[in-house]
Every structure is written in C-alpha cells, then in structure tokens.
Amino acid sequence: NAGVTQTPKFQVLKTGQSMTLQCAQDMNHNSMYWYRQDPGMGLRLIYYSASEGTTDKGEVPNGYNVSRLNKREFSLRLESAAPSQTSVYFCASSPSLGTIYFGEGSWLTVV
Amino acid sequence: GQQVMQIPQYQHVQEGEDFTTYCNSSTTLSNIQWYKQRPGGHPVFLIQLVKSGEVKKQKRLTFQFGEAKKNSSLHITATQTTDVGTYFCAGPRGNKLVFGAGTILRVKS
Questions:
Q1: Which residues of B touch A105 (CB under 8 A)?
Q2: What pLDDT, in 10s, does the model give residues B38-90?
C-alpha cells in the first residue's frame, strides 16, 4: 500500500540552485497535484495534471515547472531556488475530482 | 474566482470541550470534502458531503452541508488530545479542489 510516494523528504538548497521533487502514485489515478504549505496559508496549489499528458497552473506557479512523465509520475522542478520557496511540498493524486490522497511531504529549505 | 473561507484560524480548547470549524464558499458547491492533518503529517481525507442539508457523523465528529450548498461545518463533541491537528475543508473548482486555509485545533489536557 505505497499510495503516493514523494522524494526527497528533506532538502536544503542554496539560493539559485535547482532541484526536482519526484512523485509517484500506484493507485491508477488520473489527476495529480503539487501543493505547498506555509504557516497560516493552508494548502496552495502550484500545478496540477488532470490526466496524463496535460498540466495546468494552480494558484502559485511562478518559479516552478512540472512534468507528467506518465500516469504514475508527476515531478516538480525548481529551476533557480529562492528563499521564498522554503516550504513543505505535498504531492497528491485523485481519481478525477474524488478524494485526494497526499504524499508524506517534502521539507525544503532555501538558504 | 471561487474562494473557500474557513474560520476560525486557530482554536485552543480544554479537553472535553466541544469544537466547531466553519467553511464558507462564495459559490454553490457540488460537494465539499473535509481533511485532517496531524502535526508534522500530511492531510488525510475524512468525509465528503454531496446533498443539500446533509449531515454525517463519524463517532464524535459531525459534518454538515448547508441547504444552499455554500457552507459547511465540522463539529467535534468532547474533544480529546487525539483530535489535535489542522482541519481543512475543500470544494471543487473546475477540475481541481480548492482548500480553505484550515483551522488549527489544540487541546489542553
């Protein structure tokens, strides 16, 4: 019962460095999402993919890119990390507009 | 665009007291979902409400969906320390869910 698996769990980056957060789900879900969570801000949608081959911007897409590699995998890339991108990132998946299943989160610090 | 507002932002209760969080949408929702996130954890689905005026119970938790399908509430009776965490409501907008900012619940034992 892996569900949604995201890596890495913790990462420290220097300003300007790039990195990719990986995410995979084994539930055969069509939709996948990337959220960031900051204190007092709830869950903000960065990008989502309603189906394999499609991606769309969410509320806070600036500074990020995504790739829906196949139905299972949805990666999030920071091309040039900034301190404002210090956050907890959650990957999630759902069967279209059904229940959303979240990964365990990735704690990213940009110094 | 559609927003989902959630209040209060934070509540600190004595163990045994009741707790309620409210969710309000600017537009009619086809359904509303509730999630719980324990400290240091990830959000976990609790329930989905679909029908106007619907009430569902899970042990000490009571969920309501308003008659106009624009608001919802989660009520916890006799809180326990295991109830601590952040409670989120979420409503559909297009082909994605919009989350409220969440209510943080702390329980004093």
A1: 41-42
A2: 999 999 999 999 999 999 999 999 999 999 999 999 999 999 999 999 999 99
> Looking at this protein, which amino acid is placed at residue B40?
G
All residues at 6 or more sequence positions from B19 whose CB lies less than 8 Å from its CB, including other chains: B11, B13, B75, B76, B79, B83, B105
Nearest to B48 among A42, A56, A99 (CB): A99
CB A88 within 8 A of CB A40: no
Per CB-CB distance under 8 Å, the chain B contacts of A104 are 41-42
Interface check for B9 against chain A (CB to CB < 8 A): the answer is yes
